[in-house]
Amino acid sequence: MSEPAFLWSSLAPAIPEISLVVAICAVLLIDVFMGDRRTGLTSTLTLVALAVCAALTVEYGHVMERVVLLNGMYVADELAYVLKLVGFSVVAVVLLYSRRYLVDHGILRGEYYVLALTALLGIFVLVSANSLLTVYLGVELLALSVYAMVAFDRDSGVAAESAMKYFVLGAIASGALLYGMSLLYGLAGTLDLGELTARLASPSSLGVVMGVVFVVVAVAFKLGAVPFHMWLPDVYEGAPTSVTLFIGTVPKIAYFALALRLLAEGLAGMAPEWTQMLAPLAVLTLVVGNVVALVQTNLKRMLAYSTISNVGFIVLGFVAGTPDGYAAALYYTLVYVLVALGSFGVILLASRKGFEADRLEDYKGLYRRDPLLAFAMMLLMFSTAGVPPLVGFWAKLRIFQALWETHHLYLVIIAAAMSVVGAFYYLRVIKLMYFDEPVAAIPPAVGGAGVRLVLGLNAAAVLVLGILPGPLLNLCARVLH
Amino acid sequence: MHGLLSILIWLPIAAGVVVLLLGDRYVALVRWLALLASLATLALAVPLWMQFDAGTAALQFPEALSWIPRFNAQYALGVDGISMPLIALTALMTVPVIIAAWTVIEKRPAQYFAAFLIMEGLMIGVFSATDALLFYFFWEAMLIPMFLIIGIWGGPRRVYATLKFFLYTFLGSVFMLAALIYMYVKGGSYAIEHLQGLPLTIAEQRWIFVAFFLAFAVKVPMWPVHTWLPDAHVEAPTGGSVILAAIMLKMGGYGFLRFSLPITPDASAELALPVIALSLIAVVYIGFVALVQQDMKKLIAYSSIAHMGFVTLGAFVIYAIVRNTGHTVGTGMALDGAMVQMISHGLISGALFLCVGVLYDRVHSRQIADYGGVINTMPVFAAFMVLFALANTGLPGTSGFVGEFLVIIASFRASFWYAFLAAVTLVLGAAYTLWLVKRVVFGPVTSPRVAELKDVNGREFLVLGVLALVVLLVGVWPAPLLKVMQPTIHHLVSQAIATKL
To answer: Cα separations (Å) of A12 from A7, A58, A62, A130?
Structure first.
């Protein structure tokens, strides 16, 4: 069989990654040569680079059909296209939110921006993976960038501890992933996800099931599903808030893609096995996440447990094991990212030099000090609690629907009960902001009209997408038909 | 008029948003704007009633737009004889709430008015939605303003009360949502009419009935899930109590009539007896509980639970009638009674809470023991309060009489004991209400604070006077109200006793 001549133009669907690599090199070099003289330049440049990359992606990278490139290593489809555009925009908003925080804490360094971009590259590789190797490459590129980001405030002992914990536990997860992959490769004889689907079908040998177990463990770890969630609260709390914002939002897209590409696509034949494994994980995740969040006093830590409980819902979408369930999980993930972006954004905007604004009591009477922040946070909290007219309601509805379609009565009941438990701690934040009197000692808010506008738009999006959920629901269903 | 229902929903919401944006800097403007918006909504409710065709059970003023094509969910509105009077009640009761708060609310007044206007739109949305998903959307969205109203402007234990209110209702509603989604997955549509026609096995009906029951029983509220109500009422500001008692409790009753009876008729028939039992417990036991209350608002709150027991009794006694007599004579009367009781209780309890508000604004106490002899210093007010109290006991000539009378008469057809126990309320209701009046209004002036009281001002007189007129009108001449409901009730009876099996 003779290979056809290689055409550069055939790489067009990979334009997001290619342009991003160029951008990373440019930002890195310019930052190195500009040094610390122009600290603001790198951040502006990164935003421009993201905008250019996104524009190139829209112009050249839009594929309607599934295209497999690079000897089957890389796949471009509409799902990947959408997730990459979401990735560009979320990273841009994260960087906008975090700028002032970085300045206040004296850690506005080029590394933060370069690492954010390399993490994004890892996400893209993962999103477009069509082979076990590409999956692993993406996972590691993302993970290594994020470990470094957590630790990049060199003087903070807590951050270093978190990074260490994250790194060690993350290495175990990577090991599990690699081990599972090696078993699958040994038994199926292929790394290609499409081939894997064709060769592995339930019921299968014990070896294959073992491989699936390890893959599920790795996915659960990356998502933060109980009992593989231990790293998540510590890392969220210990990392600088700007980094918490990053790891609380962007990588979720990647880990959704990880679960989708590995389980739903590569191991589609083994669905009866892994849905059974995921169901108890989802229940545990919902229960532990919601119940433990009730007793937190630190907002970042509370949101970490809230993340865990939300992961429970995303996993439930996979438990359904149908395209509709995956579409529900995708919708839930996107909604979660939007809301988490705003919630951590509020923490960043509420913080000042020497005041982290990460304890719950710091939010007492926030309404008096800063009505916009309080109102935005209220919308975000009601949304996460799943109250209409906010978008979080539709995300939960979508999951319930996917579960009913696959006759999971008990999961519906547990998820419904747990969303009521969850409502309590979201309401508590609103109670602090609106019903309690402010604590006098907190310094007043400082400017940044542009960032506040972005936060306002973020909260408005939660409301508008809640009143008119149709287009996003359709999009999610279409890319996963 | 085309799009009338949409205007009724969105006009107050839009006004609420404008009021919110204007903020507390323009308090005077904000007040007038809020009053104007609520009056305009009330004015628009007039053509809704006038142009309503009382000769048909079909949905009127229909509107339908594609909302979420993915779920086949529509922005579909329409009213029949059950929902139209409740919309009118909502539009009517919001006006006194705005007027009553005129100068009383000093803390963040703009947000207070905005919350009530937005509430009004959402409540009208609940009653006019003919798509279950849209219904649920409004039903839950309503929790947000109410949560804030109790939490921001409430009394000392407001945080406890508002969290309890929210979590109780949220818990009930979530299971209703699960049931709605189940039926959508089965039938492919959220249209309520479609759900009513959806064939369901008895096992499915039982599950769905229980899920609905959780949502509606909490909202009504029925014993034993009523405990949030006394807390919420006591802590809520006057306006919050009025809306809670006058409209929000009615949503539970409305839910039973709109969802439970027609969608799960067989399960309703099967489980009617326990529901009747719970209703009678609410009527009798809660009546005794009301007797011993020291707090005026708490007393009226318990009285509300007892009165709402008539609504659930009227709704479910129809199954006992059919079972015991073999025919449907009297079932329509029971449902008529339930509906009139809802409207009447909305007016009376709202008025009573406004009366307590009038006293509270002057004395800053809700304890019965702090009053006595109010009639000596506030004769006009005392006249209103006595009138509403008598209406609350079900005195003939007031609206309170009509509903209770219809339900008791209908219950006789089912069983003497149902009627007997229900009629106990006439004694108990009279006891706790009149005793309240005796201790607060009559007797010698007991404290210096009562001696300094000034009688109602023009604003308060207007509010109480209008409500008194409506209470008397419905009591003396309930025919127009019964007439608009009749075809719908007739249709509902046929749906409720038909089997889906």
So the answer is: 10, 11, 9, 17
Average pLDDT of the residues in A295-312? 91
Identify whether A291 is part of a domain. Answer: yes
CB B341 within 8 Å of CB B404: yes
What is the Rg, in whole angstroms, of the alpha carbon atoms belonging to chain B? 21
Amino acid letter, residue A187: L
Find the domain containing A251 and state its range.
13-479
Asked if residue A467 belongs to a domain, the reply is: yes
- Does residue A3 form part of some domain? no
Cross-chain residue pair A473–B71, CB shorter than 8 Å = yes
Rounded to a whole number of angstroms, the distance from the CA of A237 to the nearest CA of chain B is 27
The phi, psi pair for B63, rounded to 5°, reads -140, 145
Q: Which of B68, B167, B181 sits opposite A473 (nearest CB)?
A: B68
B354-376: pLDDT as tens digits: 999 888 888 888 888 888 888 88
The nearest CA of chain B is from the CA of A270 a distance in Å of 26
Q: Closest to B141 (Cβ–Cβ): which among A388, A397, A473? A: A388
Here the ipTM equals 0.90
For A161, half-sphere exposure in the C-beta direction (CA atoms, 13 angstrom radius) is: 8
- CB nearest B152 (choices: A416, A420, A435): A435
Min Cα distance A404 → chain B (Å) is 6
DSSP-derived 3-state class of residue B412: helix
B171 CB neighbours in chain A (<8 A) are 417, 420
* pLDDT digit string, tens, across residues B274-285: 999 999 998 889
Q: CB atoms < 10 A from the CB of A210, how many?
A: 15
* HSE toward the beta carbon, residue B493, CA cutoff 13 A: 21
Tracing tokens 């909490």 back to the chain, one arrives at: B218
SS (H, E, C) B113-126: HHHHHHHHHHHHHH
How many domains in chain A?
1
Evaluate whether residue A186 is within a structural domain: yes
- Chain B residues with CB under 8 Å of A416 CB are 174-175, 177-178
Between chains, do B68 and A413 touch, taking CB under 8 Å as contact? no
Partner residue facing B185 (CB), from A401, A424, A434: A401
Q: Is the pLDDT of residue B2 over 80?
A: no
CA distance linking residue A138 with residue A129, whole number of Å: 8
In angstroms, what separates the C-alpha of A398 from chain B's closest C-alpha?
Answer: 9
A207 pLDDT band, cuts 50/70/90, is confident
The size of the A-B interface in CB pairs under 8 A is 78
Contact state of B174 with A416 under an 8 Å Cβ cutoff: yes
Buried b (16+ CB within 10 A) or exposed e, A132-146: bebbbbbbbbbbbbb
